Each structure stands twice: as structure tokens, then as C-alpha cells.
């Protein structure tokens, strides 16, 4: 398990996270698109996780459960049940988070949504694929190399 760096569980139908243990210590990329997840309960400590894809699930909260992944840089939550800024509050503590995708989530309907999310999460460079100035994100492969040191 410790040598696995990338794991794709897309379309594997489950309302809860199962089988993902803390033995995946070197996992850097995890994709669970369209699984049917309703929560992040049982999300394990994944200390090297940089990219997490959770699109098209039914997650409505619990983002504090990602705290065991301090290197997280890219989080995709598009097509989930995230309705308000309070739900996103835990993300402000993820100092390496550079890219967040909330496309097709109810929270995007809030007035001045983009400005508020950028204020809430200071480390964020890209929201829904665009920076603060509405410039489209470049391919993020080069971004992966730089990490913020926690003081």
C-alpha cells in the first residue's frame, strides 16, 4: 500500500468511504468522482495527498475531516451539495490549498461568492479554474512542485 501514489475509485458506488486506510502514506492523488458519497466520514490521514477529486457526489460538509492531508493543493468538489460559506470554513487552515473547484454547487449562487471564497481561503490561487482576476488557470502540473512551508 505504501508505494501507491495515485488511486482512482471513480464510479465505485458507495455512500461512505471504505477500504481507504492510513497505510496509503505516499498517496498523492485520489479520485472518487461519482461514487455517491454523502460524507467524508472515515477519511484517513493521508499526509502526502496533494490532489483530491470528489466531483459529483452528495457531500454537504465535513471538510475538517481532510485535516490529515496538510499538503492538499487541489480540491475538486464540483457537483456536490455545498450550500454555504460556513461549510468551506475549515479550508482556510489548509495552507497549501491552491485550487478549489465548486462548480455546480449551490454555494456559487451566493452574492460576491468568488470574492468571499478568496478572502476566506488566503492560500487559494484558483477558484473554479480562474484566479482572482478571472484569468484561467494554466495546467497545474508545474504548480505541484512548490509547497508552502508552515511556520
Automatic annotation (TrEMBL):
Highest taxon of the lineage: Eukaryota
Gene3D superfamilies (UniProt xref): Ribonuclease Inhibitor (3.80.10.10)
Stretches that traverse the bilayer: none
Sequence segments annotated as region (Disordered): 132-151
Alphabetical UniProt keywords: Leucine-rich repeat, Repeat
Pfam families the record matches: LRR_9
Acidic residues: bias regions: 136-151
SUPFAM superfamilies: L domain-like
Keyword Repeat found: yes
Signal sequence coordinates: none
Family: Belongs to the ANP32 family.
Protein name as it appears in the record: Acidic leucine-rich nuclear phosphoprotein 32 family member A-like
UniProt organism field: Priapulus caudatus (Priapulid worm)
Amino acid at each position: 500500500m505504501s508505494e501507491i501514489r495515485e488511486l482512482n475509485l471513480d464510479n465505485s458506488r458507495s455512500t461512505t468511504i471504505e477500504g481507504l486506510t492510513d497505510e496509503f502514506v505516499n498517496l498523492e492523488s485520489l479520485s472518487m468522482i461519482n461514487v455517491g458519497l454523502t460524507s467524508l466520514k472515515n477519511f484517513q490521514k493521508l499526509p502526502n495527498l496533494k490532489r483530491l477529486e470528489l466531483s459529483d457526489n452528495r457531500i454537504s460538509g465535513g471538510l475538517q475531516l481532510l485535516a490529515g492531508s496538510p499538503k492538499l493543493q487541489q480540491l475538486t468538489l464540483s457537483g456536490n451539495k455545498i450550500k454555504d460559506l460556513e461549510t468551506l470554513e475549515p479550508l482556510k487552515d489548509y495552507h497549501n490549498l491552491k485550487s478549489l473547484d465548486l462548480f455546480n454547487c449551490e454555494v456559487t449562487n451566493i452574492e460576491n461568492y468568488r470574492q468571499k471564497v478568496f478572502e476566506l481561503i488566503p492560500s487559494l490561487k484558483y477558484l473554479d479554474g480562474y484566479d482572482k482576476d478571472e484569468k484561467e488557470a494554466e495546467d497545474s502540473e508545474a504548480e505541484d512542485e512548490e509547497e508552502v512551508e508552515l511556520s
